[in-house]
């Protein structure tokens, strides 16, 4: 019986330790250095994201979850962009550029959209293969949260508000 209690106690200590590590931000990593090629042909780098809280969303026009979440991504951008929040939607390499342009124009996406024709950006951001994959980057350029699949938007909004309040 003593071994079970010791093992349970050790597991609890490890769990709490990892939780504190992540909660206190010690587990944050810098957003990878990347160059994003926007639909208008201009370029933006990861360094350009600093000073703002940024949602980086890897998506595809063929991804039903991506298409379904886009109105909430737009609403989130519209709610916070005047307060120092930005959004960058990165289309996956297999997504035909003409489809991405058509989607961005017909849906009137108000934020920057990038094409990742070579897959280099997705690879740099952890070899992203599943869409949607979303990263929240704080003002210092650190990834503070990532989601695979649609985020819990009320929770996401709380996180954005917290990050916007940081100096």
Structure, described:
The protein is of the alpha+beta class. It folds into two domains: 1-29; 31-165, 3-Layer(aba) Sandwich (Glutaredoxin). The chain has five helices and eight strands, in the order αββββαβαβαββα. Strands 1-8-7-4-5-6-2-3 form an eight-stranded mixed beta sheet. Strand 4, helix 2 (64-80) and strand 5 (85-91) form a beta-alpha-beta unit. The radius of gyration is 18 Å and the shape is globular. 31% of the residues are buried.
What's the Cα radius of gyration?
Answer: 18 Å
Please identify the top-level CATH class of the largest domain.
Answer: Alpha Beta
Overall pLDDT: 88
Percent of residues in beta strands: 15-25%
Helix fraction by DSSP (H/I, runs of at least 4):
40-55%
Largest sheet strand order: 1-8-7-4-5-6-2-3
Helix-strand string: HEEEEHEHEHEEH
Number of strands: 8
CATH fold field value of the largest domain: Glutaredoxin
Largest sheet: 8 strands, mixed
Distance between the termini: 50 Å
Number of helices: 5
CATH H level of the largest domain: which superfamily? Answer: Glutaredoxin
Overall tally of structural domains: 2
- Shape descriptor reads globular
Do you know the CATH architecture of the largest domain? 3-Layer(aba) Sandwich
InterPro entries: Redoxin, Thioredoxin-like_sf, Thioredoxin_domain, Thioredoxin_ResA/DsbE_sf
Protein name: Redoxin domain protein
Domain Thioredoxin: 25-165
GO molecular function: oxidoreductase activity
